[in-house]
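Why should sequence recovery work at all? Because a backbone constrains its sequence more than one might expect. Tight turns favour small or flexible residues, buried strands favour hydrophobic ones, and helices have their own preferences. The token representation captures these environments compactly. In the example below, the structure is given first.
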């Protein structure tokens, strides 16, 4: 989501005008208007300051697909379908063995 939209939605959600936000943050109202129009992209510190003015904060969350080892995906796709099925069976058995070990050797 772009900073302009994020800030505008956050401000409106709490029922503040740009003038109210300017008063709370000490930032000029025309600067807030330029940010919300997308004419200016604020720095992270400015965006955090403005969001704090409406009682919100930025939160880092993982993006879907991040942390995927694409080389493993390519390797799997290079296998014949039968080889993939065998590999999946081996992985399943290894997971079950790991679970048993984690449970102190009790079968599931």
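From this structural description, the recovered sequence reads:
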């Amino acid at each position: 989501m772009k900073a302009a939209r994020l800030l505008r939605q956050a401000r409106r959600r709490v029922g503040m005008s740009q003038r109210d936000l300017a008063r709370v943050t000490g930032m000029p109202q025309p600067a807030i208007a330029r940010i919300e129009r997308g004419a200016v992209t604020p720095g992270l510190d400015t965006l955090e300051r403005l969001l704090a003015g409406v009682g919100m904060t930025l939160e880092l969350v993982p993006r879907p697909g991040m942390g995927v080892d694409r080389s493993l995906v390519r390797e799997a796709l290079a296998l014949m379908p039968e080889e993939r099925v065998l590999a999946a069976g081996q992985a399943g058995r290894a997971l079950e063995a790991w679970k048993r070990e984690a449970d102190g050797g009790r079968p599931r």
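A few observations help interpret the result. Residues 81-102 form the longest helix (22 residues).
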